[in-house]
Predict the 3D structure of the following.
Amino acid sequence: MSGSTDISLLIPPKASATALRTPSGSPDPTTRDALAIFSRTAPSESRVHGVCEDELHLHELGQADAIADVAGASAAIHDLTPSAIFCARIVAGI
């Protein structure tokens, strides 16, 4: 099976992470899941950067590359509908 997904992003440099997490309208399942992932990461990012979540900007979330990674993974999960997803332990530091 092959296919493609186009993801277009127009992100102002000082875009708020809160704005990213609260789009207008009812998002499709792929977008809803991607937004849920950012909602889960925002508290940690705000602690690391020493700002409240409302002041957290997209550059603290990794900007467009992080958004594309999360949106792409969400699209793949919805397209492939795997029965299980596994992840190795994340190693921080050496």
Observations:
- The chain has a mean pLDDT of 75.
